[in-house]
Amino acid sequence: MQELNILGACINGVICLYDRPCFLISNQHPNGDLYRIALRNPANKEFKVLPTSHVNCPSHVDYTYEGFKFGYDHKSSDYKVDRIVSFGDDSIVGPDRPPLVEVYTLSTDSWRQINTVLDASNLSDPCKFEIYLNGAYHWLAYRSEQPWPHGDTELIISFDMSDEVFQIIRMPELEDVSGMNLKTFSVLNDCLALIFYSAEETVTVKNFDIWMMYEYGVKESWIKQLVVGPALVGIERPLGFAKNGELLLVAN
Asked: Which residues of 92-145 form beta strands (DSSP E)?
């Protein structure tokens, strides 16, 4: 395996390595060894290459987009890798077909397909804006609640590594976030946190709005916790929160 990437966080001393973080695959390629994933324990030098799951791409599909998650099932004390595959057809205007979701379990050394509440309109990019909290992965996505291309609603999708179920979490009802067209997803005090900020390069003095969800999964529990700034000169963007609660910033 070459040009390896680390997938997610280190769990119990085990890391997940793979050769492509997120990638687009043309249907012109065969359904062969499209990715390589391995589990590695640096302490005892154990190295386990996962078997490749061969999902047949329908003939009328132009491409597939794949994303992966690495986590731990605390109920069964087992390591798992979640694979999300979305299909695209360039000839279709609007949302494509629903994604396919598979789970690899170390104890069985095999992949299996699971049911999902996801659809093509709310998959978004499962490799961006992701965090791991309470045994579940969370990432930002969109849902088309009105006929495409209007009415996109931003939301949070989570996948529980133990129960293997997806959950859709609503975003806060925002107040005035004029000019704050970007956000950072993080965890603060074991709660989901969102940091809104401006992406305008002309804005040299920035401020950030910090929201926290105090009751997990309950939309009404989002609270605007803090406004940082506006005396932030030379700051490009917020990176997220450290485990000790400190806000990490990227300077320009």
From this structure: 100-105, 110-114, 130-133, 136-144
Contact 37, 50 (CB under 8 A): yes
Position 176 scores a pLDDT of 52
The answer, yes or no, to whether the previous bond of 230 is cis (omega within 30 of 0) is: yes
Tell me if the bond preceding 149 is cis, omega within 30° of 0.
Answer: yes
Q: What is the mean pLDDT of residues 159-173?
A: 89
Contact 118, 100 (CB under 8 A): no
Domain count, the chain: 1
C-alpha distances (whole Å) from 52 to each of 80, 82, 110, 126, 156 are 14, 13, 9, 20, 29
d(CA 103, CA 80): 7
pLDDT at position 229, please? 75
Report the mean per-residue pLDDT for the chain: 77
Closest residue by Cα to residue 84 from 109, 56, 103, 62: 103
- Residue 178, in any domain of the structure: yes
Sequence-separated (6 or more) residues with CB below 8 Å from residue 10: none
Residues 6+ apart with CB under 8 A from 11: 70, 71, 72, 79
User: Which domain does 248 fall in, by range?
Assistant: 174-252
Q: In what order do the strands lie in the sheet with 14-18?
A: 5-11, 14-18, 37-41, 46-49
pLDDT digits (tens, 9 = 90+) for 13-36: 999 998 765 555 544 444 444 568
| Residue 78, domain member (yes or no) | no
* Tens digits of residue pLDDT in 67-94: 788 899 999 999 999 888 777 665 554 4
Residue 113 lies in a domain: no
pLDDT of residue 129: 66
